[in-house]
Amino acid sequence: MRFTAGLVLSLILVSGAAAAPVAVDFDSEFGAYHLLGEIVSGECEGMVPGLGIKSAVYTDGESYLYLYQLQNNAGSGVKRVTFAPFSDVSLDTLVGYLQTHDLADFQEDGLAPVLAETGDHERVSPFAGFSFRSYGQGSALLPNEHSAVLFVKSDRRPTMIDANVLFNDGNATGEVYGAVPEPMTILFLASGALMLRRRSN
């Protein structure tokens, strides 16, 4: 899949709730979930090329589990990744990483994030994010390393959103699975865009 460069403001201009990510075993926590659709895998594009990112959606028929894994083939360390716009994130959103799993399409182990964050900003879309190095803690995801499998649990069905990656010396953007707004929200956003277009004309 070909990725296109996108907005990376959510890497900098964000405000939200940050906490230690939850570490879980996939079988014990999400044993009833099964893969929905296909695995999406590709390389991010931007100032620092070479980062591979993989995403998938699992479901138990009621809620959705969004999985992500980074493979750093770039020449710089990864400090942070955010997924946006991620609909309906809140303080209660379950975010973390898989401590153990037997998923064939994802590598085991990997560098775990030190912070998980959900929130929004008045000028940036709602997001879910993970930091590998923050406030003097942790270590960047170095070249030739892969991350742990990161996850975000949501009741919203999947669509394609942006993964915004912040390196030590640049950024890149790719396309991954994420939660879509509920139908009424989509209608509201569409009507708002139409009004703005009419005003501009």
Automatic annotation (TrEMBL):
Keywords: Signal. The keyword Signal applies. Residues 1-19 form the signal peptide. The keyword Signal applies. This is PEP-CTERM protein-sorting domain-containing protein. It comes from Anaerohalosphaera lusitana. The lineage of its organism: Bacteria, Pseudomonadati, Planctomycetota, Phycisphaerae, Sedimentisphaerales.
